[in-house]
Write a structure and sequence with these properties.
The structure holds two protein chains of two kinds. Chain A is mainly alpha-helical. Helix content of chain A is 72%, strand content 0%. The radius of gyration of chain A is 23 Å and the shape is extended. Chain A starts with 16 loop residues before the first helix and ends in an 8-residue tail after the last helix. Chain B is 68% helix and 2% strand. A two-stranded antiparallel sheet of chain B has the order 1-2.
């Protein structure tokens, strides 16, 4: 399982997660308050400059990460072209690309563990209300481990299906996949209990 | 305790891999992903409380940068994009689906899970989803509803699947239906 952190080392990798997240908050609030297309173009240019400063390879990867936004950009531009208010449409798209681009920048230059540590740190004050930061970290690790296990199980059962049937595997495969992974989950829970359980996280 | 934590993590992983399942394209040309099926199942299988926790755990691993949101998306950026409302709707949907299925115990589980999945996973999910699109794209609620409408037929398929799967699981592994615990 690959995380979205960029393997290209950039100066931004050296900054801690918390300051980058705070900068993201400030930037996004600012961008959502702005209405003037010229100012939004400036904000967008700022993000483009940040990417450019990180080098060619990094900027290309950053551009690829914006791909899911293109349908929305297209719909907005066409919409505003028809309603003859194209400047407002451009402003919306600039804001969208600038804010999501800035957020992706934080994700791409912050290791998974640093972000996770920051999140569990945020949970620490909630301890007295029953939140448990250490248990949260453990649960995240479990999810990350379960994902490849689930995929491998689904693949194995799909192969078995193809060996038996000329038809393509379909949703009927879901029940056996669920059943086998539920049994796996019981084994994991049993193994945890056998090793002293999760009480040390209490 | 151990079993609860493991099952919550398992369902968070389930939501994640259902997002990686190749997207099906309906006749109308609208792509649908299986991710919201996972959200519905969190509610109907784990119940309101644990289902919501599983979905929140899923959102956390999206936020820290795993590309497990449908279409291989992830990171903090998705919380600033046009679909942010649906991300807000995910835990609400799981909660409502779980709450409803827990309160329809007289009904056959297949039907109660379908009703719960429809109200939680479609009605409740789309309200913040549409508001989010309206805000981020600066459009009226009516226009944003128009953008979301093509996705409803796919969601109805998922509602039916959720009912069938929940009932199938209950038959084969009764202990897996946590809210009955």
């Amino acid at each position: 399982m690959l995380s979205l952190t960029s393997p290209v080392r950039t100066p931004s990798h050296r900054i801690g997660a918390a300051p980058k997240l705070l900068a993201l908050c400030a930037f996004s609030i600012g961008a959502f308050l702005l209405r003037d297309p010229a100012l939004l173009a400036l904000a967008f240019a700022f993000v483009v400059l940040l990417y450019a400063a990180m080098g060619h390879l990094f900027a290309r990867a950053g551009l690829a990460r914006l791909r899911p936004l293109w349908p929305f950009v297209a719909v907005i531009l066409i919409w505003h072209l028809v309603t003859s208010d194209i400047l407002a449409g451009i402003a919306i798209c600039l804001r969208l690309l600038a804010v999501v681009g800035f957020a992706n920048l934080v994700t791409m230059t912050t290791p998974l563990q640093a972000l996770l540590d920051t999140v569990t740190g945020l949970f620490r004050p909630l301890r007295r209300f029953g939140a448990n930061p250490a248990l949260l970290g453990f649960a995240v690790a479990l999810v990350i481990r379960f994902i490849p296990v689930l995929m491998a199980r689904a693949r194995a059962l799909a192969e078995a299906w193809r060996a038996r049937s000329p038809r393509r595997a379909n949703w009927r495969l879901l029940t056996p996949v669920f059943l086998t992974v539920l049994d796996d989950a019981d084994h994991v829970a049993e193994a945890l209990r056998a090793r002293g359980g999760l009480n040390e996280y209490e | 305790m151990e079993r609860d934590v493991v099952l919550i993590a398992l369902f968070a992983a389930l939501v994640a891999i259902l997002g990686l399942v190749p997207q099906l394209t309906l006749i109308s040309g609208v792509p649908i992903s299986a991710q919201s099926l996972g959200i519905m199942l969190c509610g109907t299988v784990l119940g309101a409380k644990r289902g919501t926790l599983a979905v929140l755990l899923f959102l956390l691993i999206v936020a820290i940068g795993l590309p497990v949101l449908s279409g291989g998306r992830g990171g903090i950026g998705v919380f600033f994009g046009p679909t942010v409302g649906f991300l807000v709707g995910f835990p609400l949907a799981a909660f409502v689906a779980g709450y409803l299925v827990e309160r329809m115990q007289d009904l056959d589980l297949k039907w109660s899970a379908m009703i719960a999945a429809f109200i939680g996973g479609v009605v409740v999910m789309y309200i913040p989803g549409i508001i989010g699109m309206a805000v981020v794209l600066d459009k009226s609620l009516l226009v944003a509803t128009g953008f979301a409408l093509p996705f409803i037929p796919g969601d109805l398929i998922k509602v039916v699947l959720c009912g069938l799967l929940t009932a199938g699981l209950a038959r084969a592994r009764p202990a897996a239906i946590l809210w009955r615990g």
